[in-house]
Each structure stands twice: as structure tokens, then as C-alpha cells.
Amino acid sequence: MAEQRRDQGDVRGVREGAQDVRELRGRGGGEKEARAWEALVAAARRTVSDGLVVGTSGNVSVRVGDTVLVTPSGVPYDRLTPDDVTGVDLDGRQVLGTLIPTSELPMHLAIYRSTDARAVVHTHAVHATAVSTLVPELPAVHYMAAALGGPVRVAPYATYGTEELAENMLRALADRSGCLLQNHGTITYGASLDQAYDRTAQLEWMCRLWLTASSVPGLTLSLLSDEQMAQAGKRLRGYGQRG
Hints:
With 243 residues, this protein is α+β, with helices and mostly antiparallel strands.
């Protein structure tokens, strides 16, 4: 997908009066969007440096009020600047910027409409994508799956960017904060961008762990029981610093 900008003759889907970030900073709440965009761009660049995506595959979004800031379609993350802020409302109408939003916008919006998510991270991580082609659910190979709500399901394949894919994803996400997308990748969400990103990284690590352990010939993989997963989930809810 090549880098794209709308000109005056192609404004479909753009709400009249969309503001760029410089105008936005002059209004109430503008600094929140500016800070959120900065964090979003940093996270998008990190997906590349951490090997979770190649090029511009994958996408990241953050919700600020009723506005969803999202990475634009086909633009290398190292080229994004503060003036490239791209935002839509919960109906998908563009309210910020001139760059076309990611083609995976339906998935992001479906999560925001259905959950209390404040951030979403979608990647094409190698090990997770490999697992998505092999099983309908990532086996309970590690207790960190409980941090995502339990065993991680695989959403059936559908063409990228479609409502069908978003619907398949939502079913796989029932009572979960992350899932695999068959022959495609991963998607996770969280109460913050840091949490969503950490869940993505943990999911890729668990997939790599399962692939590594299951590839050893002559040995049987040890998996956690439902009870063990439930106990881990209870402890994880109290994990970390308080205050």
C-alpha cells in the first residue's frame, strides 16, 4: 500500500472541517491528542524494531475521548511527524489529518465499540502468525495466557480490512484481551498503550515457546489445566505496584 494523501478531489470519508494537529493544539484537549499521537508513533516504530512487523504491516491506535488516533495506511513509521496525526470518530469518519487511516480500521473500531479499550495493537509477528496456521487455539503452554483472559483463540481467516474479519475477531476476543488472526497475525487491546503492547509481546513470546517446545521429537508437551490457569489469572490481577 503506497503512501497516500487526499487532495481536494478525494475527500470521501473525511468529515468537513477536519483539523490538523497545529489547529487542534489551540483548542481544549488538543495537547492530549498531541501527546497520544507521539506515544502512538513511538509504539508503531517499536513494533518494527522489536521484529513484530515488517515495513508498514500491522497498525496501532489509541482512543482519546470519542476520537481514535490510528496509524495511516502504507506510511513508513519513521516518516511520521506530529503534523501527520490521523484520527477518526467511532463511526469511522475522519476528524483529524489528511492521511488515509489504516485499512484495518474496522477491527480497531469494533474493539472500541465493544470494550473499554483505550489502545489496540495489531501485528504480523512471525511466531504468532505461524501458530495461527496450525491450531484453532494456542495451547495453554504458559500461565501468561491468563493475562489475556485465558487460552488464546484463533479467529477464522477473512480478507484483511473487511467487516467479516472484524466480526471473526470479536468472537475470538469474547472474554479475552487478545487473539490470533488465522494466516494473518495478532491483535490485543488494553487500558493503555503500554498494556496493549505488552500483551502483544507476551503473545508472540508464548507462540514462540509453544512452537519451540512442540518441535522436540519424542517428548510430550506439558500443558496447564483450566484450574491452574484460573489460579494464575487470579494472581496476575494483583501483580505489580499499587498506588
